[in-house]
Amino acid sequence: MGPPSSSSAPLPPPVSSAPRTQPSGHDHAARFAAGRPGDPKKPARQIDIEMREPDGKMVFTPDRIEVRRNEQVRFRIQNHGELDHEFMLVSAAESAAHQRMMEQHPDMAHDEPNGRTLAPGKTAELLWMFDKSGTYEFTCLIPGHREAGMTGSVTVKK
């Protein structure tokens, strides 16, 4: 067997072969920096997000999104990869804190107002109201995935 290709880094191994079913233990009453859960009775713009692992990287497509302040968005999130992935909509500070928590609890799964964990081949929706201007992240906080490139940004304009 020859040396590994220098053009792509190897994907991190799955954290566990067991299903990711440990509850998250988050406070659902907490206020989110990136806005708030949307209202299903109101119209929303749909944005499709794909998660996958091409060429040794882990990516969201698209990885940059622009929305208007007070715009409601329905994210349709599809895992077209071979590994479990997450879509967590957070501020940079929330991302760093949550990543530390995920390192301590790597089998934590999410079904939160601002995030979902998806097995390969699965699809989920997340309805979100962006009520504050600023730049926020969507990221996969499964250990090793963010470091392998699985992060994106949402810019909320006035």
From TrEMBL:
Skewed-composition ranges (Basic and acidic residues): 38-53
Keywords: Copper, Metal-binding
Region of interest (Disordered), ranges: 1-53
Keyword Metal-binding tagged: yes
An example Gene Ontology molecular-function term: copper ion binding
A Pfam family hit: Copper-bind
Keyword Repeat: no
The Blue (type 1) copper domain, residue ranges: 50-157
Name of the protein: Copper resistance protein
Organism: Rhodoplanes roseus
